[in-house]
Design a protein that fits this description.
The structure holds two protein chains of two kinds.
Chain A (H helix, E strand, L loop, with lengths): L1 H46 L14 E2 L4 E2 L8 E7 L4 E7 L10 E3 L11 E5 L18 E6 L2 E14 L14 E8 L9 E14 L2
Parallel strand pairs in A: 4-5, 6-9
Antiparallel strand pairs in A: 1-2, 3-4, 3-7, 5-6, 7-8, 8-10, 9-10
Chain B lengths: L1 H29 L4 H10 L2 H14 L18 H16 L9 H17 L7 H20 L2 H39 L5 H21 L10 H32 L11
Helix pairs in contact in B: 1-7, 1-8, 3-4, 3-6, 8-9
């Protein structure tokens, strides 16, 4: 009985030894022939992973010498308040302009500049009463004030335009002059899907930095 | 005798590769290539609830700009309808059928809701075309959210072909494994099953450990959170199946050593 057990034990050990040799050989073969492809696919998969980070709420600061923001607001956070006295609008400005964001306020296109940086600032909002419904009522010279944590900026309306929903490059992002472009769906007071946009263009007329 | 021994080791090595391939094909065929498994993962991860909410959310994004209120979207579709459409879509996807979503009842309910909203609020429609465009937009959202993406339709052909090919490869490999196994056993009169099973078990455990150590499965974000949770669940389930399968192979391999041999290769 003991002899039989020893024999079985030996056999198991022999088979395990053979298996480890085979496994090592196969592993080396897989590594040799496929490691590059496996690594590429793994890095592609890892590009789709997002590690949740706790974003600390911090105030946006402005470098007045470099004329740029020191730290940018996080996506979807409120970084300013917009006031349009002529149509009684006072609304929060969010960083980002997706449909999810503009449900709550005015969206700031993240590919555009921030007030004070000297480039194009693009803001979008729904054609609701609290936001940009009355944008077409604004006349030339109307004022728009953006109050950010790093300063207050005043703009004056210089032009308006009706553009198609697919012609959103009507105002290319530039750095020659600080221009504020605000747009909403058009026509504003009809029922149904809107294929046009009403855009207003404003130039910077005053800025007051608070830090 | 020496030639027989060399043949034995080479045969066992090839059998190890074949068993590994058979295991991997069987794993794919029993999981991601089976509609029942995918639908079970949807159910397990509350996919239908998430999809229902996500359609609602996406549709309500267009409500304000259309000059309407959320009330027009009420009861135009139900969670059960969404579940039924997804089930139909998955079954057609794997069965190589035409993928389409039935939007007829959604359209009717939406148009009725809009009509009663306009009547209740005494609103006159000046641009019927814009209103029709809005309805079409809502139906597009409903369809696209259920189908996930048009690229899924393109992937259908590939998946169906892969499934067919894997089934053929499985049968051929199983046949070769059987013949080779018998050949090794007959010529070498030695234990055939233990080493290939054990090798496959070790490799599966090692591969599973290395892959899942390098992928942050819990944080994979693909398409949206709803789809991602299903993908994460499928990956975890595959990993668990591989672990259990590998352990079973190792145990079977050890147990096979208890079966006495009649003859052994004389060295």
């Amino acid at each position: 009985m003991l002899n039989k057990m020893i024999q079985i034990g030996k056999e198991v050990a022999r088979q395990i030894a053979i298996s480890f040799f085979f496994a090592s050989l196969l592993f080396v073969m897989i590594h040799f022939f496929f490691s590059e492809k496996i690594n590429t696919y793994l890095s592609l998969i890892n590009m789709m992973t997002i590690v949740e980070k706790q974003v600390e709420k911090q105030e946006t600061k402005f470098d007045s010498i470099e004329k740029r923001l020191v730290n940018y607001p996080s996506w979807g956070s409120i970084w300013a308040t917009i006031k349009i006295p002529d149509i009684g609008v006072e609304a929060p400005v969010y960083h980002g302009d997706t449909l999810d964001i503009i449900k709550y306020g005015v969206g700031h296109y993240s590919g555009s500049y921030f007030p004070g940086e000297g480039g194009t600032i693009i803001l979008a909002a729904h054609n609701s009463k609290q936001h940009f419904m009355y944008l077409p009522k604004l006349k030339e010279g109307a004022e728009v004030i953006i109050e950010a944590s790093y300063g207050t900026f005043t703009y004056r309306l210089i032009d308006t335009k009706i553009i198609g929903e697919k012609e959103m490059d009507s105002l290319p992002v530039q750095t020659e002059k600080e221009i504020l472009m605000m747009y909403t769906c058009y026509p504003v007071n009809t029922i149904g899907h809107k294929t046009k946009r009403y855009a207003v263009y404003l130039e910077l007329v005053g800025e007051n930095h608070e830090n | 005798m020496r030639i027989k021994l060399i043949f034995y080791y080479i045969g066992e090595f090839v059998l190890s590769i074949l068993v590994l391939l058979l295991f991997l094909i069987a794993l794919l065929e029993c999981t991601v290539l089976r509609p029942k498994y995918v639908l079970h993962q949807f159910e397990k991860n509350n996919y239908y609830e998430g999809l229902y909410k996500s359609i609602n959310n996406e549709m309500s994004n267009y409500i304000i700009q259309a000059g309407l209120e959320d009330v027009v979207l009420e009861d135009i579709y139900t969670k059960d309808m969404v579940e039924k459409e997804v089930t139909k879509m998955i079954q057609r996807f794997y069965g190589n059928g035409k993928i389409s979503v039935d939007t007829k009842s959604v359209k009717e309910s939406l148009e009725n809701n809009i009509a009663s909203y306009l009547l209740k609020n005494n609103i006159e429609v000046t641009d019927q075309k814009a209103l029709d465009q809005f309805v079409d937009q809502m139906l597009d959202i409903y369809e696209e959210k259920i189908v996930l993406s048009k690229s899924l339709i393109k992937a259908q052909n590939l998946v169906v072909k892969l499934d067919f090919l894997l089934k053929i490869v499985f049968v051929v490999l199983a046949f070769i494994t059987g013949v080779l196994g018998l050949l090794v056993k007959y010529i070498c009169k030695n234990r055939v099953v233990a080493a290939p099973l054990f090798t496959t078990g070790i490799l599966l455990l090692l591969g599973n450990y290395l892959l899942f150590n390098r992928i942050d499965v819990a944080h994979i974000l693909f398409w949206n959170e709803n789809v991602s949770s299903v993908i994460q669940s499928i990956l975890f389930s595959l990993s668990n199946t591989v672990k259990v399968g590998a352990l079973i192979l190792i145990i079977l391999s050890i147990l096979s050593c208890f079966v006495p041999r009649k003859e052994q290769v004389k060295k």
